[in-house]
Amino acid sequence: MSDMTITFIILGVTMVLFIWGRWQPDLVAVGSLLALYLSGVVGLDEAFSGFANATVVLIAALFIVGEGLSRTGVTAYFGERLIGSAGGQAIRLLVLSMLATAILSGFISNAGTVATLMPAVVVAAWGLKSTPSAFLMPLAFAANAGGLLTLTGTPPNIVVTDALRAAGFREFGFFEFSLIGVPLVVVAVVYMATIGKRLLPQRRTSDAPPVLDREMGELASAYSLDNELYRMRIRKPSPLRGSSLRESDLGKRFGVTVLEIQPAEESLSLQDPASAVRRGVETVLPDDDDGLPDPDQELHRNDVLLVNGTEEQIRDLEVAMQLGVLPIEDAGQTLADLLSLEIGIAEVLLTPRSSYIGARVSDGEIARSFNILVLGILRGDRQLPVTEPLQFGDALLVRGTWESIGVMAEERRNFVVVGQPDELSTQVTELTPRSWAAIGILVAMVVLMVTGIVPVVIAAMLAAGAMLLAGCLTKTQAYRAISWSTVILIAAMIPMAIALETTGGAERIADGIVNTLGEMGSVPVLAGIMIVTTLFSQVISNTASAVLMAPIVLSTAASLAVSPHPLMMGLAVAASSAFLTPIGTAPNLMVMAPGGYRFSDYVRVGAPLMVAFLVVGVILIPIIWPF
Question: What is the pLDDT of residue 216?
Answer without folding.
Answer: 64
